[in-house]
Specification:
The chain contains 11 helices and 10 strands. The relative contact order is 0.13. The radius of gyration is 19 Å and the shape is globular. The protein is 43% helix and 22% strand. The strands form 2 sheets. A 6-stranded antiparallel beta sheet has the order 1-2-9-4-7-10. By secondary structure, it is α+β, with helices and mostly antiparallel strands. The longest helix is centred in the last third of the chain and has 19 residues. A hairpin with a 2-residue loop joins strand 5 and strand 6. It comes from Leptospira soteropolitanensis.
Length: 257
């Protein structure tokens, strides 16, 4: 399976945090694991057989275009090759304002986009006919850009999200709210309404994601070092948080990956 991350233009970055493309020509079942990353998103896939999303003990067969919300529980997607699977991570408020889907109803869940809502973009059908992940990526991005024309971001919220990302989740919420002239309660309300998480939850997820990347890319580093560079107070705190999001302890996760 090939996985890559296309670059984004400045215009695209106003709506999209990042893009991931998965593609396989093998005729076998594959499992794509996903963990909390702080961002909802939209997916366009094509496979000859049904695609199933597993969240905890729940499972759901999905249509070709669907939106997913904040993922607190680990998610697994079973897909049979040959396939392409394009995923756009969206800035949280984009989902509700551009797609009219309540962000709070999407946590650990998926929402199908009806075919009549995306079929107007010819590149969707063309991507399927030609089995082209590049056409699929462009179709999905065009769809979001068109829908996002009515999106007006909350500038303070956007800056706060960017600051939490820049600090890799190691951010004191009290200082952050004060810096931007808000009470902690006001900032928390804005996050819950537009992100679907509190700022503390969002920060916790971003810090976890940083530690996950460290484990995936630095296989020779000690877990104590990963905990330190990721901003955890101690190794036990790191282990608890990691297990909460992956259902595995860090050393177990490393051994199986």
């Amino acid at each position: 399976m090939k996985v890559w991350k296309p670059d984004l233009s400045p215009k695209e970055k106003t709506l999209i945090q990042s893009v991931y493309v998965f593609e396989s020509n093998c005729e076998e079942k594959q499992t794509l694991p996903f963990y909390a990353d702080g961002f909802p998103g939209i997916v366009f896939f094509h496979s000859k057989k049904p695609v199933t999303v597993f969240v905890g003990s729940e499972s759901k067969v999905m249509d070709p275009v669907f939106v997913y919300g904040q993922t607190i529980e680990p998610i697994q997607i079973e897909i049979n090759g040959p396939f392409f699977f394009v995923m756009l991570q969206l800035f949280p408020a984009v989902v509700e304002f551009s797609l009219d889907i309540p962000v709070l109803e999407l946590t650990n869940s998926c929402w199908t986009i009806p075919r009549f809502d995306w079929n107007f973009e010819p590149s969707f059908s063309l991507a399927i006919d030609e089995f082209s992940s590049s056409l699929a990526t462009r179709a999905l991005m065009n769809f979001i850009i068109e829908k996002g024309k009515k999106f007006h971001p909350d500038p303070v919220l956007h800056v706060c999200i960017e600051e939490i990302l820049e600090k890799k989740g190691s951010c004191e919420i009290g200082k952050l709210s004060k810096k931007h002239g808000l009470s902690e309660r006001t900032l928390q309300r804005r996050f819950q309404n537009y992100v679907g998480l509190t700022p503390k939850q969002f920060s916790t997820i971003i810090r976890f994601q940083f530690s996950l990347n460290e484990i995936n890319t630095e296989n020779n580093s000690r877990l104590t070092d990963v905990a330190y560079v990721s901003g955890y107070s101690d190794q036990s705190h790191f282990i608890r948080q990691f297990k909460w999001f992956t259902k595995k302890k860090p050393f177990q996760f490393r051994e199986k990956n």
